[in-house]
């Protein structure tokens, strides 16, 4: 019971720290941002709200100014089921990438951030 309370309290502290120190979003031309928005429509992030690795990933999305759909796999049973059925495990963060060849599920915050930077950082 005490451990759960500590974990919840620490999670909320991390969320508050993120809100206070969030980086500025990348500036783009209107055409560049429209292209990013269009490409980001094929992405979805499955996450837990107070998970430190999910927060790290959301911070990168905010910094890169990439509007990715968020699904809370902890509080939303349908999102949890979709994550388990598609990705094979309930592990967050997980980025669902819809591509012409099918759907890809990417785990690990560092891999997700590297993918987002490679795909969106240089769009002007």
Explained architecture:
- By secondary structure, the protein is α+β, with helices and mostly antiparallel strands.
- The protein is 54% helix and 17% strand.
- The chain has helices at residues 2-21, 30-40, 52-64, 77-87, 109-120; strands spanning 43-47, 69-72, 94-99, 102-107.
- The protein has a four-stranded mixed beta sheet with strand order 2-1-3-4.
- Helix 3 (52-64) links the parallel strand 1 (43-47) and strand 2 (69-72).
- The longest helix has 20 residues, at 2-21.
- The protein is flat and about 50 Å long.
- This is Glutathione S-transferase N-terminal domain-containing protein.
- Residues 45-122 form the GST N-terminal domain.
- InterPro entries: Glutathione_S-Trfase_N, Thioredoxin-like_sf.
